[in-house]
Structure formats: structure tokens, C-alpha cells
Amino acid sequence: MREIRKVRKPGDKSKKVKKQEKKAVMWRSRSGMEMVQVAILIALAVALGIIFRTEITQFVNNTFKLLNS
Length: 69
What we know:
By secondary structure, the chain is mainly α. The chain has helices spanning 15-51, 53-68. The chain has one domain (16-68).
């Protein structure tokens, strides 16, 4: 008995190739989102540092005074 093979057209892609391409696209978008998240967290930390600058300075000074005495 002969084995019947499906003839693919030049534009057809296998399921495996499609799956790999989909993973590649997801990976690129995830890494971009991670960079945005890191940037937002850094901006938030800087903003909080500026807002609570005097309180942070007082806390650090009091802590060092207690450690030195």
C-alpha cells in the first residue's frame, strides 16, 4: 500500500512553526512589559523618596544616633 502525503503550499506553515512564532511574539511583548514595569517602579521609588525626604533623613539620623550611643 502506498503512503499518501499531503502536499503543502509554499505559504503553509506547520503547527510547530506557528507555535514557535507565537511564543517568540509573546516573549518579545513580555520583555517589553517587564521594562515598563521596572521603569514605573523606579519612578515610584524616586517620587516617594522626594515626597518623604525629610522623614527619611530624620529616621536615618535618629538611627545612627542610637547606634553610636
